[in-house]
Design a protein that fits this description.
The chain is α/β, with parallel strands linked by helices. The chain is built from nine helices and ten strands. It has a single domain, classed as Rossmann fold (3-Layer(aba) Sandwich), CATH 3.40.50.300. The strands form two sheets. Strands 6-7-8-3-9-10 form a six-stranded mixed β-sheet, with helices on both faces. The structure holds adenosine-5'-triphosphate. The site of adenosine-5'-triphosphate (ATP) has 11 residues, from strand 2 and helix 1. Adenosine-5'-triphosphate (ATP) binds next to strand 2 and helix 1. This is Sugar ABC transporter ATP-binding protein. GO terms for molecular function: ATP binding; ATP hydrolysis activity. Keywords: ATP-binding, Nucleotide-binding.
Protein backbone atom coordinates (compact mmCIF):
# COMPACT_ATOMS: atom_id res chain seq x y z
CA UNK A 1 0.00 0.00 0.00
CA UNK A 2 1.18 3.57 -0.58
CA UNK A 3 2.69 5.49 2.27
CA UNK A 4 0.36 7.91 4.06
CA UNK A 5 1.18 11.54 3.38
CA UNK A 6 0.18 12.42 6.93
CA UNK A 7 0.15 9.92 9.74
CA UNK A 8 -0.40 10.16 13.49
CA UNK A 9 0.20 7.40 15.98
CA UNK A 10 -0.98 7.18 19.56
CA UNK A 11 -1.78 10.86 20.00
CA UNK A 12 -2.78 11.85 23.51
CA UNK A 13 -3.96 15.30 24.57
CA UNK A 14 -5.26 16.01 28.03
CA UNK A 15 -6.94 19.15 29.29
CA UNK A 16 -6.84 18.73 33.05
CA UNK A 17 -9.04 15.74 33.74
CA UNK A 18 -10.50 15.64 30.22
CA UNK A 19 -8.72 13.39 27.74
CA UNK A 20 -9.52 15.00 24.39
CA UNK A 21 -7.28 12.58 22.45
CA UNK A 22 -6.90 9.11 23.85
CA UNK A 23 -4.21 7.20 21.92
CA UNK A 24 -5.58 8.28 18.59
CA UNK A 25 -4.29 7.04 15.23
CA UNK A 26 -4.80 8.78 11.92
CA UNK A 27 -3.77 8.35 8.30
CA UNK A 28 -4.28 10.48 5.22
CA UNK A 29 -3.26 9.04 1.84
CA UNK A 30 -2.10 10.97 -1.24
CA UNK A 31 -4.86 12.42 -3.39
CA UNK A 32 -7.78 11.45 -1.17
CA UNK A 33 -10.56 13.29 0.62
CA UNK A 34 -10.71 11.87 4.12
CA UNK A 35 -13.74 12.91 6.15
CA UNK A 36 -13.46 13.01 9.93
CA UNK A 37 -16.80 12.55 11.66
CA UNK A 38 -17.75 12.22 15.30
CA UNK A 39 -20.21 13.39 17.90
CA UNK A 40 -19.80 16.72 19.67
CA UNK A 41 -16.86 16.56 22.01
CA UNK A 42 -15.43 13.39 20.41
CA UNK A 43 -12.11 15.16 19.88
CA UNK A 44 -12.15 15.96 16.17
CA UNK A 45 -11.05 19.56 16.59
CA UNK A 46 -8.29 18.57 18.97
CA UNK A 47 -7.02 16.01 16.44
CA UNK A 48 -7.02 18.62 13.68
CA UNK A 49 -5.32 21.14 15.94
CA UNK A 50 -2.61 18.61 16.73
CA UNK A 51 -2.07 17.91 13.03
CA UNK A 52 -1.94 21.60 12.19
CA UNK A 53 0.32 22.77 14.98
CA UNK A 54 -2.34 24.58 17.04
CA UNK A 55 -1.97 22.22 20.00
CA UNK A 56 1.01 20.16 21.06
CA UNK A 57 0.09 16.58 21.89
CA UNK A 58 1.22 15.18 25.25
CA UNK A 59 2.16 11.88 23.64
CA UNK A 60 2.36 10.31 20.22
CA UNK A 61 4.01 11.02 16.90
CA UNK A 62 3.10 12.78 13.68
CA UNK A 63 4.77 12.00 10.37
CA UNK A 64 4.56 14.02 7.19
CA UNK A 65 5.67 12.07 4.11
CA UNK A 66 7.29 9.50 6.35
CA UNK A 67 9.30 12.02 8.36
CA UNK A 68 8.62 12.72 12.00
CA UNK A 69 7.45 16.29 12.55
CA UNK A 70 6.65 18.30 15.63
CA UNK A 71 4.91 21.59 15.02
CA UNK A 72 5.25 24.19 17.73
CA UNK A 73 2.89 26.66 16.02
CA UNK A 74 0.37 26.70 13.15
CA UNK A 75 2.93 28.71 11.20
CA UNK A 76 5.38 25.83 11.32
CA UNK A 77 2.74 23.43 10.00
CA UNK A 78 1.88 25.92 7.27
CA UNK A 79 5.52 26.24 6.29
CA UNK A 80 5.66 22.45 6.05
CA UNK A 81 2.76 22.53 3.57
CA UNK A 82 -0.28 21.94 5.79
CA UNK A 83 -2.97 24.62 5.38
CA UNK A 84 -6.02 24.79 7.61
CA UNK A 85 -9.29 26.58 6.94
CA UNK A 86 -11.05 26.96 10.27
CA UNK A 87 -14.78 27.07 10.72
CA UNK A 88 -14.51 30.53 12.17
CA UNK A 89 -12.91 31.90 9.06
CA UNK A 90 -9.57 33.46 9.63
CA UNK A 91 -10.17 36.11 6.99
CA UNK A 92 -9.96 39.79 7.87
CA UNK A 93 -13.27 41.33 6.75
CA UNK A 94 -11.98 44.85 6.19
CA UNK A 95 -9.06 43.76 4.03
CA UNK A 96 -9.31 43.07 0.32
CA UNK A 97 -9.37 39.63 -1.25
CA UNK A 98 -5.75 40.03 -2.38
CA UNK A 99 -4.61 41.16 1.05
CA UNK A 100 -6.39 38.25 2.68
CA UNK A 101 -4.76 35.78 0.36
CA UNK A 102 -1.35 37.06 1.26
CA UNK A 103 -1.57 37.86 4.96
CA UNK A 104 1.78 36.88 6.46
CA UNK A 105 3.39 35.97 3.15
CA UNK A 106 3.24 39.07 1.02
CA UNK A 107 5.40 39.31 -2.07
CA UNK A 108 8.06 41.99 -1.71
CA UNK A 109 9.37 44.11 -4.52
CA UNK A 110 12.61 42.90 -5.98
CA UNK A 111 15.93 44.44 -4.90
CA UNK A 112 16.48 47.27 -2.43
CA UNK A 113 12.85 48.49 -2.46
CA UNK A 114 11.69 45.11 -1.21
CA UNK A 115 14.52 43.99 1.03
CA UNK A 116 15.32 47.28 2.75
CA UNK A 117 12.14 49.33 2.33
CA UNK A 118 9.86 46.27 2.61
CA UNK A 119 7.72 47.52 -0.23
CA UNK A 120 5.17 45.07 -1.52
CA UNK A 121 4.84 43.99 -5.10
CA UNK A 122 1.10 44.60 -5.53
CA UNK A 123 0.90 43.82 -9.25
CA UNK A 124 2.56 40.44 -8.63
CA UNK A 125 0.23 39.71 -5.73
CA UNK A 126 -2.83 40.65 -7.74
CA UNK A 127 -1.75 38.52 -10.64
CA UNK A 128 -1.16 35.54 -8.38
CA UNK A 129 -4.52 35.99 -6.61
CA UNK A 130 -6.38 36.34 -9.90
CA UNK A 131 -4.68 33.26 -11.28
CA UNK A 132 -5.49 31.15 -8.23
CA UNK A 133 -9.10 32.29 -8.02
CA UNK A 134 -9.69 31.66 -11.71
CA UNK A 135 -8.01 28.25 -11.59
CA UNK A 136 -10.67 27.29 -9.09
CA UNK A 137 -13.49 28.89 -11.04
CA UNK A 138 -13.92 31.73 -8.57
CA UNK A 139 -13.71 34.57 -11.04
CA UNK A 140 -17.32 35.52 -10.49
CA UNK A 141 -15.61 37.70 -7.91
CA UNK A 142 -15.17 40.75 -10.10
CA UNK A 143 -12.80 42.89 -8.18
CA UNK A 144 -10.08 41.27 -6.17
CA UNK A 145 -9.44 44.55 -4.41
CA UNK A 146 -12.90 44.56 -2.87
CA UNK A 147 -13.12 44.06 0.87
CA UNK A 148 -13.92 40.55 2.00
CA UNK A 149 -16.84 41.90 4.09
CA UNK A 150 -18.65 42.73 0.85
CA UNK A 151 -18.62 39.07 -0.26
CA UNK A 152 -21.30 36.47 0.39
CA UNK A 153 -20.58 33.66 2.86
CA UNK A 154 -19.94 31.21 0.05
CA UNK A 155 -17.56 33.56 -1.72
CA UNK A 156 -15.67 34.13 1.51
CA UNK A 157 -15.34 30.42 2.05
CA UNK A 158 -14.21 30.23 -1.58
CA UNK A 159 -11.44 32.75 -0.97
CA UNK A 160 -10.32 30.86 2.15
CA UNK A 161 -10.23 27.55 0.27
CA UNK A 162 -8.46 29.15 -2.72
CA UNK A 163 -5.86 30.57 -0.35
CA UNK A 164 -5.34 27.15 1.19
CA UNK A 165 -5.09 25.55 -2.25
CA UNK A 166 -2.67 28.22 -3.42
CA UNK A 167 -0.25 27.69 -0.57
CA UNK A 168 -1.07 24.27 0.88
CA UNK A 169 1.38 22.26 -1.05
CA UNK A 170 0.84 18.98 0.79
CA UNK A 171 -2.34 18.83 2.86
CA UNK A 172 -5.47 20.96 3.21
CA UNK A 173 -7.62 20.73 6.32
CA UNK A 174 -11.18 22.04 6.06
CA UNK A 175 -13.11 22.43 9.30
CA UNK A 176 -16.87 22.50 8.62
CA UNK A 177 -16.52 24.38 5.32
CA UNK A 178 -20.26 24.41 4.60
CA UNK A 179 -21.62 24.85 8.13
CA UNK A 180 -22.68 28.47 7.76
CA UNK A 181 -23.78 28.33 4.14
CA UNK A 182 -27.07 28.05 2.29
CA UNK A 183 -27.83 25.28 -0.20
CA UNK A 184 -26.55 27.08 -3.31
CA UNK A 185 -23.44 28.37 -1.63
CA UNK A 186 -22.69 24.95 -0.16
CA UNK A 187 -22.94 23.44 -3.63
CA UNK A 188 -20.30 25.85 -4.95
CA UNK A 189 -17.96 25.09 -2.06
CA UNK A 190 -18.44 21.32 -2.57
CA UNK A 191 -17.50 21.75 -6.23
CA UNK A 192 -14.50 23.79 -5.20
CA UNK A 193 -13.36 21.02 -2.85
CA UNK A 194 -13.64 18.51 -5.72
CA UNK A 195 -11.58 20.86 -7.88
CA UNK A 196 -8.87 21.08 -5.24
CA UNK A 197 -8.84 17.29 -4.98
CA UNK A 198 -8.52 16.97 -8.76
CA UNK A 199 -5.34 19.02 -8.50
CA UNK A 200 -3.91 16.17 -6.46
CA UNK A 201 -3.96 17.85 -3.04
CA UNK A 202 -5.28 15.56 -0.30
CA UNK A 203 -7.97 17.01 1.94
CA UNK A 204 -9.09 16.36 5.49
CA UNK A 205 -12.73 17.34 5.82
CA UNK A 206 -14.31 17.73 9.23
CA UNK A 207 -18.07 17.86 8.90
CA UNK A 208 -21.31 17.05 10.66
CA UNK A 209 -23.15 17.18 7.35
CA UNK A 210 -23.56 13.53 6.36
CA UNK A 211 -24.80 14.13 2.79
CA UNK A 212 -21.76 16.33 2.14
CA UNK A 213 -19.44 13.79 3.73
CA UNK A 214 -20.89 10.96 1.68
CA UNK A 215 -20.76 12.99 -1.50
CA UNK A 216 -17.11 13.98 -1.16
CA UNK A 217 -15.20 11.49 0.94
CA UNK A 218 -13.11 8.62 -0.34
CA UNK A 219 -12.83 7.29 3.19
CA UNK A 220 -14.46 8.27 6.47
CA UNK A 221 -12.55 8.32 9.76
CA UNK A 222 -15.07 7.79 12.57
CA UNK A 223 -13.94 9.42 15.79
CA UNK A 224 -15.38 8.41 19.14
CA UNK A 225 -14.28 9.14 22.70
CA UNK A 226 -10.98 10.69 21.69
CA UNK A 227 -9.83 8.07 19.23
CA UNK A 228 -10.36 6.60 15.81
CA UNK A 229 -13.05 3.98 16.14
CA UNK A 230 -12.82 2.77 12.54
CA UNK A 231 -12.50 3.92 8.95
CA UNK A 232 -15.43 3.22 6.67
CA UNK A 233 -15.93 3.26 2.93
CA UNK A 234 -18.85 5.51 1.92
CA UNK A 235 -19.57 3.17 -0.99
CA UNK A 236 -20.26 0.21 1.26
CA UNK A 237 -21.75 1.97 4.28
CA UNK A 238 -24.88 4.04 4.68
CA UNK A 239 -25.27 7.36 6.42
CA UNK A 240 -27.23 5.66 9.18
CA UNK A 241 -24.34 3.19 9.66
CA UNK A 242 -22.01 6.16 10.05
CA UNK A 243 -24.26 7.92 12.55
CA UNK A 244 -24.78 4.72 14.54
CA UNK A 245 -21.01 4.18 14.76
CA UNK A 246 -20.42 7.78 15.70
CA UNK A 247 -22.94 7.78 18.51
CA UNK A 248 -22.11 4.34 19.84
CA UNK A 249 -25.41 2.78 18.78
CA UNK A 250 -23.41 0.33 16.70
CA UNK A 251 -19.97 -1.25 17.07
CA UNK A 252 -17.56 -1.40 14.12
CA UNK A 253 -17.66 -5.20 13.68
CA UNK A 254 -21.37 -5.07 13.13
CA UNK A 255 -21.23 -2.05 10.83
N1 LIG B 1 -8.84 24.21 25.31
C1 LIG B 1 -9.53 23.28 25.97
N2 LIG B 1 -9.59 23.29 27.30
C2 LIG B 1 -10.26 22.36 27.99
N3 LIG B 1 -10.95 21.34 27.42
C3 LIG B 1 -10.95 21.29 26.08
C4 LIG B 1 -10.24 22.26 25.28
N4 LIG B 1 -10.42 21.93 23.97
C5 LIG B 1 -11.20 20.82 23.96
N5 LIG B 1 -11.52 20.44 25.20
C6 LIG B 1 -12.33 19.26 25.58
O1 LIG B 1 -11.85 18.16 24.85
C7 LIG B 1 -12.93 17.35 24.38
C8 LIG B 1 -12.85 17.23 22.87
O2 LIG B 1 -13.16 18.48 22.28
P1 LIG B 1 -13.09 18.79 20.71
O3 LIG B 1 -13.41 20.22 20.53
O4 LIG B 1 -11.83 18.27 20.16
O5 LIG B 1 -14.30 17.89 20.17
P2 LIG B 1 -15.03 17.92 18.76
O6 LIG B 1 -15.22 16.50 18.35
O7 LIG B 1 -14.30 18.78 17.83
O8 LIG B 1 -16.43 18.56 19.13
P3 LIG B 1 -17.44 19.46 18.25
O9 LIG B 1 -17.99 18.58 17.16
O10 LIG B 1 -18.48 19.82 19.25
O11 LIG B 1 -16.67 20.63 17.73
C9 LIG B 1 -14.20 18.01 24.88
O12 LIG B 1 -14.59 17.37 26.08
C10 LIG B 1 -13.77 19.43 25.14
O13 LIG B 1 -14.55 20.01 26.16
Amino acid sequence: MTQPILKATNLVKRYGRVTALDHCDFELYPGEILAVIGDNGAGKSTLIKALSGAVTPDEGTIELEGKKVSFGTPLEARDAGIETVYQTLALSPALSIVDNMFVGREIRKKGFMGSALKMLDYPAMEEFAREKLSELGLMTIQNINQAVETLSGGQRQGVAVARAAAFGSKVIILDEPTAALGVKESRKVLELIQDVKSRGIPIILISHNMPHVFELADRIHVHRLGKRLCVIDPKTHSMSDAVALMTGAKEPEAA
